[in-house]
């Protein structure tokens, strides 16, 4: 099958967006980003100077009065227009995401569709502001009282390398719906995808400075958050980076939504449907090359040895059938890792598991596509004879790997999920029993539960409900981020 055309072979030196203008950075620190399928450089991008970061903050703060004065109906109209622009640019965005990140084109299409759903959700959130307000007449003798929600001001938005577009859409449309300008600091792993998301958003016509884009990193992010005009931060990334931002927000008295790592488990019960279950497990463990916080790398099988063998062979066969290659090839079902470093960390995770006593079932290290020798590839990998106390069963792999674990009971697995890690992102169960599903859903201490699905991905109008150290802050992402960007104001008036 022919490979879809790249939007560009090389995107040149990326610029910064400050106050509605794309400007060349004066930084002497310039990095390169590569196509992870080929290893070829596709763009250069700067690390912004502190003066440039400060200029972006000033632009966002300067845009706040104009943005919050825009009538609610007009802000909603602009968001609807933004949604339409993303529909028109969907094909282009998908191809950029495949080239810059490594997604297969089908995975990219799903990601861009989630972005559009987030903008739709932000449209409803804008109108939902009216429903949040309350007015009580004659609450006491001659006294009326009412409540309104007001935008806080400018925010820092930090997006990760694994979901550069989806994470952007989990915060930015909602900030604009609330009337809050943003300074976006995208991951250095796939900056081209971040720029294209921003370019499309600008077509909606929000005031200059409403969206600003600064390439930086942890040091630049910390500097931006220190600025007094910045009210808080929306972040998706590692728990370690989130903890740093959380401590900084606490010291500065700022608000935050900080979404971190997960260590996710999928439980296969004795009554699970073995016709559909392996495909769900393939998607949950190996989809998007395992580079997502909702992916699972612990597969716990409950049942006798015969049942375990049946599950193992079915999962192995499904995973082995995946085709590796460039994501713009529509026949490819697994792309490369976004960076060579990310792939190497997963290789180290596999080595650690083997050293701990796990046995190889399917070795992804041998499944490299011959047409792309310089790409960051590693095939789906399946281990067995894993035990919950092994480090690999408590440490997030963040890759297309899974460890098969045997358990005696559902209650035992629930205890493992709740006590063997301090992360609480997601967990799934495969079962045909309503009683098992209900017990699991009620007792497992995670924020996103899946029942007979491989990836418990909430729709945009639900929050990403992570718990424990998978989330820190005042409000979850997506629709729930409206609580990040807004604050209540009450009025008490006596007219009699």
Notes on the protein architecture:
By secondary structure, the protein is of the alpha/beta class. It folds into 2 domains: 16-260 and 470-492, Aldehyde Dehydrogenase, Chain A, domain 1, CATH 3.40.605; 265-451, Aldehyde Dehydrogenase, Chain A, domain 2. The chain is 39% helix and 22% strand. It is built from 14 helices and 22 strands. The protein has helices at 50-69, 72-88, 90-101, 105-132, 164-178, 191-202, 218-226, 239-252, 277-286, 305-320, 340-356, 410-419, 434-443, 482-485, and strands at 16-18, 21-23, 30-34, 41-46, 134-140, 143-151, 154-158, 182-185, 211-213, 230-236, 255-259, 265-268, 298-302, 359-362, 381-386, 401-407, 423-424, 426-430, 448-451, 467-468, 471-473, 486-494. Strands 14-15-16-13-12-18-19 form a 7-stranded mixed β-sheet, with helices on both faces. Strand 8, helix 6 and strand 9 (211-213) form a beta-alpha-beta unit. It is globular.
Protein topology:
Elements: E1 16-18, E2 21-23, E3 30-34, E4 41-46, H1 50-69, H2 72-88, H3 90-101, H4 105-132, E5 134-140, E6 143-151, E7 154-158, H5 164-178, E8 182-185, H6 191-202, E9 211-213, H7 218-226, E10 230-236, H8 239-252, E11 255-259, E12 265-268, H9 277-286, E13 298-302, H10 305-320, H11 340-356, E14 359-362, E15 381-386, E16 401-407, H12 410-419, E17 423-424, E18 426-430, H13 434-443, E19 448-451, E20 467-468, E21 471-473, H14 482-485, E22 486-494
Parallel strand pairs: 7-8, 7-10, 8-9, 10-11, 12-13, 12-18, 13-16, 15-16, 18-19
Antiparallel strand pairs: 1-2, 3-4, 5-6, 6-22, 11-21, 14-15, 17-20
Helix pairs in contact: 2-4, 3-4, 3-6, 4-5, 7-8, 9-10
